[in-house]
Each structure stands twice: as structure tokens, then as C-alpha cells.
Design goal:
Layout (H helix, E strand, L loop, with lengths): L32 E2 L11 H11 L11 H11 L6 E4 L2 H12 L5 E5 L5 H8 L3 E5 L8 H6 L5 E7 L11 H10 L5 E5 L15 H5 L5 E6 L12 E4 L2 H10 L7 H11 L2 H24 L3 E2 L6 E5 L5 H11 L2 E2 L1 E3 L4 E5 L3 H30 L3
Parallel strand pairs: 1-11, 3-4, 3-5, 5-6, 6-7
Antiparallel strand pairs: 2-8, 7-8, 9-10, 10-13, 12-13
This protein binds pyridoxal-5'-phosphate (PLP).
The site of pyridoxal-5'-phosphate (PLP) has 13 residues, from helix 3.
Length: 378
Amino acid sequence: MTSGVAVRPRAGVDAISPYKAGEAVIPGRAAATKLSSNESPFGPGQAVLDAIAVAAGDARRYPDSAAMALRTAIADHFELDVGGIVCTNGSESLIDLIARTFAGPGDEILFPEHSFPMYPIVTRAAGAQVVEAPAPDLTADVDALLARITPRTKVIFIANPNNPTGTCIDKQKIAALLKAVPSHIVVGLDSAYGEYVDDPSYSDGFEFIAQGHRNVIVLKTFSKIYALAALRLGWGYAAPEVVELMMRVRPPFNVSSLAAAAGCAALAEPARIKEIVAHTRHWRERLMRILNDGGLHTTDSVCNFVVCRFNRRGSWQRADEILKSHGIIVRPLPALNALRITIGTTEENDLLVAALADVIADSQGSAFLESKKRSAPR
Ligand SMILES: Cc1ncc(COP(=O)(O)O)c(C=O)c1O
């Protein structure tokens, strides 16, 4: 029976543009090289696979709601206080948990423009207002953020380094921000890509909590360097009283026992992580050099991806088509007239390098044609 009454979402839901995941297939092609979601090019190690298999044997049981073994492993590995750790179903659900714990209708959540697209989604889902601060140079600007704080601001998110731009800000700037932000405003420092950074002036944020900033929450993920994206495992670190507030809102079984077991095993493989970092940095530099030498612009990415910017309208589409013709899927960033390209395995990167030669040749060809058009007599 139909009543004729249409259900309506709460205020704010209509304004949400659903998250668009990276593409995984090229229509008409059996296989593709997926460089669109900043995943690890290397699978989890054997010890992790073994730990998942053991945990799967006990899948009929609910997981430990406190995720104690995992939190203890994280605390030991990162030298943190176990009472300050909260684990979640991917760090995207920690972003959501922060929004829902600390903001609601009438409140504002602030972040730089061109930030991780989940920030506006969780803000609106919580019924709060999105406030974006300008990000000149595609990087967070402390003064611009401070200028947009109002009495309604409840949370500030800063992805450092930022996805999708790849850029980061140094710890002096974060320190300046924290000094100026009123202490009742939660500052979420999203360090999902922190392991890939090799800039000594970078901080993943734990030190600010150690210094006594009780409004800071550092967000971390097992989806990137730890190669566990499919298992959905993230975690955060904050003052215990801040964690206690989030624990009230957190679903009780939000981390599966398979994910928890995998996380513990992944932390026990530091040599593997070192290798992945070295591989990523090597290819990041090489890919950026190839693009720059070919006359294309890149952002100063410190992540496991590079961002190639084009200076003629719509040219990202042409480059995307060329890469797809080589079987390579990357992430379009239309607002930046750019493509975000995840660093893959050596074989995938070799394919990419060959395909980029065509992108570069095409862009130089069209630049040549454009300059001829401009100089042609009328
Ligand atoms: C900046 C940033 N934060 C958080 C996440 C969420 O990661 P996950 O939910 O897989 O832990 C991502 C994923 O791409 C990200 O780029």
C-alpha cells in the first residue's frame, strides 16, 4: 500500500554530492592498470595474509569492541598512550565520527578548498555547514583558515599532506594555527599519507598532542602504506577525554576481527614499509621529472601520487583519453584541470612512462598548433 507521503532526508542531505570512487574498469577492455585510488601497489605480506586466515576461522564471533590487541600494537609501534587511540572502519568513518561527535545543525566545519572530498559529505550529513578557506598554491593557508573561524566553528579538518593536491604544510604552520585556534575547536590533522613525506619540517601531528593540545585529533589509515584498503581500517589519536566522547558515538563493532588481526601483523613488518616508501619516493621524483621535462606542470606532491596540471581548458580530458587508450586509469581533477596519478608497481610505472610520452607529445603538438594559430596572419 502506498501512502503518498514521500520520505524526506534531514536538512543538508540534499546538498551532498555522493563520493565518487576512482574508476576501476575501462569499458571494452578486459584488463586495466588502476592508478586512480592511491592504493598500495604491493599487496599485504604473507604474515598479514596468514593473520587474516587465522582470524577468519573465528568469524562467527563478534570482534573485540575495544579492539584492545590492535590499539596496544599501535600504541607500542608509534609510542603512544593506548587510552588515546580510537580505531574505526577506515579513517573515512573516523572523519564522520569526528563530525557527528563535535558538530551538528547550526555549527560549521572548516577546511581548505581542494581538500579530501569526504569533509563536505560528513559535514552535511551531520547537519552542519561547510566553510571552505581559500588555498592559494593548492595548499592549506593558515591565515585564510583563521580568518574564517566564527563562533559556530566546531571542527577544522586539515589533510596534511592533502589529497588530491599532494601538498603539505610544515610543522611551524601547524603550530601557528594551533596557537591561534580557540581550544574548544577540534582540529583534525588527517595524516593518511604521512609515511610518504620526506620533508624534515613535516609533522604527522602526534607531537602537538604530546605538547598538550587537547583539541587535536590525528587521523591515520591502514589503507595506504599498509596496503589494507579492502579491510577498512583507520585510527585516530587524541587526548583520552576526547577519545572518550567519540567512543560514545562510535558503533560498538566498527572494526572487524580480520581487519584488526591484519593491522597488528602489518605493523610487525617495518622493513616492508621502508621498501615501499623508497619505491614511492623514487618514482614520485622520476614521474615528476618526466612530466616537467615534457613541459607539464605538477604540484609539489609528497604523497604516493603525482598531480599533473594542464594549462589549456579541458586538456585533462585529452590526456585521460590517451592514458585510457594505453589501458591506464587515473583520477581526473576537473576543478584543477589536472590528473592525479597513483604510483604503481615498477611494471605499471613503466607502462605509465610510455603512455606519458604520448600525453607529452600530444600536449606539445597542440601547443605548437595553438601558437601557430595565434601567429597566423588574419
Ligand atoms: C586525506 C585522506 N584521508 C582519509 C582517507 C580515507 O582513507 P580510508 O577510509 O581508506 O582509511 C583518504 C583516502 O583516500 C584520504 O585521502
